[in-house]
Amino acid sequence: MSLLEHMDTGQASAGKTSAVPTENDRPLVELSHVEKHFGKLHVLKDINLKVNKGEVLVVVGPSGSGKSTMCRTINRLETIDSGTIRIDGQPLPQEGKELANLRAEVGMVFQQFNLFANKTILENVTLAPVKVRHMSKKDADDLGMDLLARVGVESQAAKMPSQLSGGQQQRVAIARALAMQPKIMLFDEPTSALDPEMVNEVLDVMMKLASEGMTMICVTHEMGFARKAADHVVFMADGRILEKGTPEQFFDHPQTDRAKDFLSKILTH
Ligand SMILES: Nc1ncnc2c1ncn2[C@@H]1O[C@H](COP(=O)(O)OP(=O)(O)O)[C@@H](O)[C@H]1O
Ligand SMILES: [Mg+2]
């Protein structure tokens, strides 16, 4: 069964071949001229980005280049100074219920899994559907078990997060984000806090999601994943997008010295 069975995925790639523009041609996520400062630090500089429905965008770049901040602005965990961010055509609201609704459309998975330590694995997944979506406990439990099965940790449902490995916890974090039936999933270095032997079990779940048509923005330096899953790669440095291209264009033919230097560092170990 598909990971996306419960989700309203629409027609993942409908519109791509159609000559007449439809709402499926509209980017699901669009950043235009986004600027952001932390005090004097200019962290996002004229960020322009479009991600269409069903596309996977991989974001790479050196530490401190603004990758996490960009992700956080997309579900409004950070405000922006100027520019616009649209999700499915709608500008991000400033606050209130609309913001909560819109944020629910954007699932986010962080480097640190951030599971609720005092809740069971199943409760971690069902909490938001019950509280935010007002789903019945029974329906939420069914959905939760289904999602846990799909990320391969259903046998852990009654345990507490600390009883699971990092790879298992991160898969639970993915299931928890999916439980809100997001239109898009953001992953911010989801495997970089994991022991090496656990990286693949998380990437496999992400690959499966991508192949099922989930729209994804992934900050990751996992080259194998990027080459297999990404439609586009963007390279950020010093708050700017310096390169955009297909994985082949970027990894095999980087244009800027910054990107060449960055790639030589991540490829040589
Ligand atoms: N809440 C914050 N307050 C002040 N500076 C921040 C904050 N978050 C990030 N920064 C700074 O913004 C820059 C970009 O950070 P970040 O988006 O985390 O980059 P990346 O994810 O690419 O490593 C860094 O210089 C970082 O120190
Ligand atoms: Mg980061």
From TrEMBL:
<dbReference type="InterPro" id="IPR017871">
    <property type="entry name" value="ABC_transporter-like_CS"/>
</dbReference>
<dbReference type="InterPro" id="IPR003439">
    <property type="entry name" value="ABC_transporter-like_ATP-bd"/>
</dbReference>
<keyword id="KW-0029">Amino-acid transport</keyword>
<keyword id="KW-0547">Nucleotide-binding</keyword>
<protein>
    <recommendedName>
        <fullName>ABC-type polar-amino-acid transporter</fullName>
        <ecNumber>7.4.2.1</ecNumber>
    </recommendedName>
</protein>
<dbReference type="GO" id="GO:0016887">
    <property type="term" value="F:ATP hydrolysis activity"/>
</dbReference>
<feature type="compositionally biased region" description="Polar residues">
    <location>
        <begin position="10"/>
        <end position="21"/>
    </location>
</feature>
<dbReference type="GO" id="GO:0005886">
    <property type="term" value="C:plasma membrane"/>
</dbReference>
<dbReference type="InterPro" id="IPR050086">
    <property type="entry name" value="MetN_ABC_transporter-like"/>
</dbReference>
<feature type="region of interest" description="Disordered">
    <location>
        <begin position="1"/>
        <end position="23"/>
    </location>
</feature>
<keyword id="KW-0472">Membrane</keyword>
<dbReference type="Pfam" id="PF00005">
    <property type="entry name" value="ABC_tran"/>
</dbReference>
<dbReference type="InterPro" id="IPR027417">
    <property type="entry name" value="P-loop_NTPase"/>
</dbReference>
<dbReference type="GO" id="GO:0015426">
    <property type="term" value="F:ATPase-coupled polar amino acid-transporter activity"/>
</dbReference>
<feature type="domain" description="ABC transporter">
    <location>
        <begin position="29"/>
        <end position="263"/>
    </location>
</feature>
<keyword id="KW-1003">Cell membrane</keyword>
<dbReference type="GO" id="GO:0005524">
    <property type="term" value="F:ATP binding"/>
</dbReference>
<dbReference type="InterPro" id="IPR003593">
    <property type="entry name" value="AAA+_ATPase"/>
</dbReference>
<keyword id="KW-0067">ATP-binding</keyword>
<comment type="similarity">
    <text>Belongs to the ABC transporter superfamily.</text>
</comment>
<dbReference type="InterPro" id="IPR030679">
    <property type="entry name" value="ABC_ATPase_HisP-typ"/>
</dbReference>
<keyword id="KW-0813">Transport</keyword>
<keyword id="KW-0378">Hydrolase</keyword>
